[in-house]
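Predict the holo structure. Ligand: adenosine monophosphate.
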Amino acid sequence: MYQEDIELEEAYRIIEASTKGVTETEEKMLSEADGYVTAEDIKIGFDVPPFPRSPLDGFAIRSIDTKGATEENPAVFRIIDTEFAGDFCTKTIGAGEAVRIFTGAPIPKGADCVAWQEDSVGWDDENRFRTFENGTEVKIVAEYKPWENYSFQGEEIKAGTVVVPKNHRITYIESGVLSSAGIDRVKVYRKPKVGVFVTGSELMKPGEPLKPGKIYDANLQFLSVRLKELGYAPEMTGMLPDDSDEVAKILSEANDRCDLVITSGGVSVGAKDIIHLVLPKINAEKIFWGVRMKPGSPAIFSMRNGKPMVHLSGNPFAALTTFELLAKEALRKLSHDETLRNNMIYVTLGESFSKHRGRRFIRAILENDELHFPKAEKQTSGNLMSMVGCNCIAELPPQDHPYEKGDRVRIFLL
Ligand code: AMP
Ligand code: MG
């Protein structure tokens, strides 16, 4: 059912309910899987550690052989082998025997503890630890309990444990986890294809001399770069004139090819606000028009062939804010990528703010736990330049008095 002038929460709800996540999956080599979202729970096939492991440098021994050991009356062991991380000692430790062992090496059979090298007698005159050759002796000056300094097989992770769940974006962390689990192929969702188009007969690309009446494009550029930053570089882009036939032709093609189409411009009520004419021409259904927020209020959400299209206002700051709040939500749902969810946090205002009518989104700078607004701030929705140096967008809901320094407000980080 078509709705107008809705609350942002309702817009989220509609986008969430109308947008279907991509179902097609593909298998990626781990080296190429980062930035993709897992399409199944990924389980580890073995225990971690895969063998009983020494957590320190010392001597693998039987604890029972240290009974009563003290500085004055140390227990004496014969060294039968030396094991560094990566080695594997096949000998079994018997009574009075020790294996010189280093952190990460497997604890040999027969041993039930590892004595600290600091608890051994064997430092030379220059306070360097002498090497223990096989066949030499080491004296241990303390008692050990069974399983002291003994990392059990599987004590960190048991075989069969899910190490990365389904619907989880593979970042450098997951990638490291999968590698340590020995996994080199991952089933992921294919990435949604995104098309980005700006409309406006006044728009020119940088590089051409500026003609009278024209302006250089900001939105196609920043939207493309933002999508690329997020890991969803657009498949199709275009700068279109305010000609509804032309825009209709391109948008229908884009909607056929892409999972998400994002446009900017032409969503208000002026004679050249052509998106209203375009949507019926291509049999797209307008789902909502108008969200109670400033800037960006005339945004439109439409569906065609079961696929979402988000139409943002052309004012660059409005386009930026509604991209982050609305278009990214559609992309999140399509991609199953929860890292696209806006991270809303509460912070303290470092200065007062007088405009308090209407639900406002304001570019801001979070620094030393305080929120500030850029100097000479002209809160026009068109000026993207004042965004330079900002790291967040603050949400200031309407209230009947100005915002004061020290008030708590909600922001999302960019
Ligand atoms: P519109 O939403 O089409 O009414 O555009 C609102 C304002 O934003 C107008 O001043 C446009 O010239 C400007 N504008 C629209 N699209 C862009 C763009 N891609 N880059 C920079 N400014 C734009
Ligand atoms: Mg326009």
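The longest strand covers residues 75-83. The CA atoms of residues 148 and 312 lie 63 Å apart.
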